[in-house]
Amino acid sequence: MNTFFSFVILGLVLFGLSLQSDAHEDGKCGTFASPNKDVSVLNNPRPLAQRSISSPSGKFLIHYDIEGIHAVDVKDVDGNSVPDWIDSVGYYFDYAYRLQVDTLGYTAPPADTGGGSKQYDIYVRELASQNIYGVTNPTESEITGGAYLRFKSYIIIDNNYSQDDKNTAGTPVFSTFGYDGLKCTIVHEYFHAIQIGAYGRTNFSAYYEMASTWMEWRAFPEIYDYILQARRFFTSPQTYYFGREEAEFGYKYGPFALYLTSRFGDNLMRQSWEEVRNGQAPYKALDIACVKNGTTLQGVWCDFLPLLYRTNNRSRKLGLPQELPVAHLYPALKESYTEMFSEPSISISQRIPAYSALFIRNILLPEGTNTPDTADIIFTNPHTDAIIRGSASDASFVYELRSNPGLEQQISGTTYSWSYSIDGAKPCYFSNVSNGYVTDGVDNVFPSPYRLGMDKELYFPAPAQSLVGKEIVLEIFDLSTRVLLHEEATVIRANTLPGKSTLLRVVTWKPDNVLSTGVYLYKLRYFDTITFGKFVIKQ
After folding, report:
1. Number of H helices, E strands in the chain
2. N or C: which end of the chain has fewer CB within 10 A?
3. The CATH number of the domain where 107 resides is what?
């Protein structure tokens, strides 16, 4: 039976986005920067600036320079004597307030008593040397009376988000540029001001960065920086698994927060922050918010697994709840192992942390002359208590796949069966079944004649009943002298050839720089079967 079988028990090819910088794989914000990341503007005295102006609402006071290294572009199209860049800073901070406080219902951060007024202070500086987009700086003014310490703060953002900005190592600073970089940074940093000022600061910095990266999507879904930040969640799922404490992991969790909002609306995320204010650890707060919405963190994670798998080339653009929005722009989930099935079974045993993903790709035995079947299996350990405590809580995991019945689960329509065991919480799984490909034989060499410098490859007909992926020996002889010119071990492939509607079993070879024009004989040796033929090469 030709079956592509995928069990998902629980990706950056970003098309046009792939051309953008790989900057900030370890995080773009200085607010929760790790000690080994030198962010000198963090916890230092406020910058001095040449000018200041209020935002249109009067809630923000923007400090900026018009000369020197920190200067903004002084272009002033509307002629109001304020640089257009600063006009935009004021407009988008006011927008961040309206969205996050007025619309979404979050508590505004406390008044900033530094900087010469009670307005919330924004400093526009050149941040290239800091290798960050922005930072929300807690002041020394702690606010008492809550379960966790809260802080007044001010924000520093970049003066241009230029594509040409380089850090001290000479690598690009930004992945998103100009006004797009400004907009996503403003809503990201202002949500940090709300988090640490109104709800409290804990050691689970990843949750704070997840929420602020999610806010970028909530405010500007058309700006794909949140996708760029998430790539390692898909390309390194065993390392960047959900539930870590460290800030640099939180940027990667944006897709999960996006899914929560797309499924339950805006209230669930706000409810989780209200539970943080009540003294709950962030992941416990998220679990409580899930319960208030009729599920659990483990349950919604299990529901999320098919979406984690259906990205990039696996996306069918179905829309939620079947897929993430613009799922095709995320990387494909990366497999941890690729195993060629061999009789009598495949067996894998190892330990996996809570809420991590272990993706095993099994290449099954082909039937007849068709392409091999493939079983994709992604396991997870949804141990919620562990991530609430900030513990990886590795669990013992064992998986076995056989080509015959007898194990716990049967792959429908095949003789294969499988089983697994995992310590701790009961795992969940998602299965996906699709067909492999039927291949046909081909009678003649193609193209005929082969044109040097124009055709890419020469296709030889594979022997009857040969299997795709098996090794075959190709030998080339000169027609006049019978001198062996070439001998090469290659494999039988399934190719779509011009003018052909089905996959054909062929042996591919590139004659360029090996043969000149003329007529040649070839010999294919497949186990005990030997076939001969002739082909022509022309200029």
Report:
1. 11, 22
2. C
3. 3.40.30
